[in-house]
Amino acid sequence: MNKRKVRVKVPASTANLGPGFDTLGMALNLYAWLEIGIAEKTVVRLYGDKMAGVPADKTNLIYRVAQSVFERANEPHPELEISMYSDIPLARGLGSSAAAIVGSLVAANELIGGKLSTDELFQMANDLEHHPDNVAASLFGGLVAACCDGSRASCVRIEPDERLEVLVAIPDFQLPTEKARSILPERVPLGDAVFNVAHSSVLVAALCQGNLAMIRHAMKDALHQPYRAPLIPGMETILREAPRYGALGVALSGAGPTLLALVAA
Ligand code: HSE
Questions:
Q1: Which end is more exposed in the chain, N or C (fewer Cβ atoms within 10 Å of the end residue's Cβ)?
Q2: pLDDT tens for residues 173-215?
Q3: Whole-structure pTM value
Q4: Whole-angstrom distance between the N-terminal and C-terminal Cα of the chain?
């Protein structure tokens, strides 16, 4: 072990940006702070109202992920002193668990002198979370296009246009991803798949070129939003009306229930 204590700040993320179901993510300026240190006996301290219900023993995700880093790097498995404060609400489609995983991977890796590469951390994060667009956004920041071929995750980072701003409406209820996922069909019509490939391609090209006017045409989805709308009161109204009030594009954030609008500053 090279260091005694490491502190990291890790961003929340949105996934499924518009038509980019399971692929397009973006880091948000909503953060979790995490401190991990070597200790005589493991202690987990959780601060803030966003941590309600999170276990504070060795079943804690941060603790388990940190140990997996030591194991992968063939380092001893020490007792840990963990402190976490988060402004990222749980189960709202804002990548709280991806942020916790990424924060823990990065902090634990720093404790052992950065033995694992960033790509190894990304692969580990994806193996744990299975949402490459969330973990890539929290790890690399900015906008990300990510994919996974079943064994390896890949990601390209896009620098967001500096005029882009994000507004989120965070409902006051939780929607577990498994529940929002279970409502999706196993198979979709070819036309819907083509619709999303086309719109996602145009959205990525527009974001790369800073073509903000194109976002409103590209930010449409046929793969998950129509199925999830009944779970989120008001969602259809917001998707329909937000562009009339100046949004460049509007989408469900991750599996919801948060709704996200891109606007120009
Ligand atoms: N892409 C996942 C889903 C959620 O929509 O089920 C990731 O946050």
A1: C
A2: 999 999 999 999 999 999 999 999 999 999 999 999 999 999 9
A3: 0.94
A4: 45
**Per-residue confidence at 12, pLDDT binned at 50, 70, 90?**
very high
153, 121 contact by CB (below 8 A): no
- Over the stretch 25-68, which tens digit does the pLDDT of each residue have? 999 999 999 999 999 999 999 998 888 888 999 999 999 999 99
Give the Cα separation of 190 and 186 in Å (integer): 13
Percent of the chain with pLDDT over 90: 91
Q: From the CA of 105, how far away is ligand 1's center (Å)?
A: 21
**Nearest residue CA, atom 8 of ligand 1?**
254
112 and 71 in contact (C-beta within 8 Å)?
no
Provide CB contacts within 8 A for 75, sequence distance 6+: 1, 112, 115
Cα separation, 12 vs 135, whole angstroms: 9
**Helix, strand, coil distribution of the chain in percent, nearest 5:** 40, 25, 35
Q: Which two tokens stand for residue 168?
A: 């989120």
Å from CA of 94 to ligand 1 middle: 10
**For residue 137, which of 19, 31, 256, 248 has the smallest C-alpha distance?**
31
Mutate to test the pocket of ligand 1, among 134, 225, 235 (most ligand atoms within 8 A of CB): 134
Q: How far apart are CA 157 and CA 111, in angstroms?
A: 26
Distance 36 CA to ligand 1 centre (A): 28
